[in-house]
Amino acid sequence: MLIKAPLDLTQIAYLKKNGMLHAKEDVLDSYKAGEGNMNVTLAIKTNKRTFVLKQSRPFVAKYPHIPAPLDRIEIEYKYYNAINKDNLLANFSPDVLSFDKDSNLLALEYLDLGGDFLWLYDENATLKEGVADLMLTYLKKLHQLAVPDFPSNQEMRELNHRHIFVFPYLSENGFDLDDVQVGLQKLSAIVKNNPTLIKKYIF
What we know:
Strand order of the largest sheet: 1-2-3-5-4
GO molecular function: kinase activity
Keywords: Kinase, Transferase
Distance between the termini: 40 Å
Number of strands: 5
Order of helices and strands: HEEEHHEEHHHH
Shape: globular
Strand content: 5-15%
Helix content: 25-40%
Largest sheet: 5 strands, antiparallel
CATH architecture: 2-Layer Sandwich
CATH superfamily: Phosphorylase Kinase, domain 1
Protein name: 5-methylthioribose kinase
Radius of gyration: 20 Å
Structural class: alpha+beta
Number of domains: 1
Number of helices: 7
């Protein structure tokens, strides 16, 4: 079952069959939940609650021409289960409500008060000392967490490597950096056209 908003009767029936929706739960609204790249992510509002559905496809949701490992959502499911065993880490993560392996579909708690740190890119933005300490404590706890037999996630690691350390430095990579900030595309040529620099520091 492939999910998309708004949910139709077939999708609603499927979610009730697999237990993600309760028998007497009515869907009032369903819509895209944020600007995710990798997965289809929907917020589902019912007469009882709001929750999030995430589904992986064999490609990047925002860029369908880019293949991506289908099992990434199952690995995310295992990740949440692992960190939710620790009280500190669990306080910063949504609860797992359900997982449907057949449809690569993950149901998560909806965190309506959550946010991100994109505002740090604003001019003169500063991070309060207490917040920085908390972030470092979280990261330390995460890296100390013992998780035996966790999947290597090698395909996603390789995909991320290509898009972080390879594609951005290719002269013709299909990304127009002027969409991010005007003038950035021309400025990037200083690196892209310097094979010595790329060979030494990038590849």
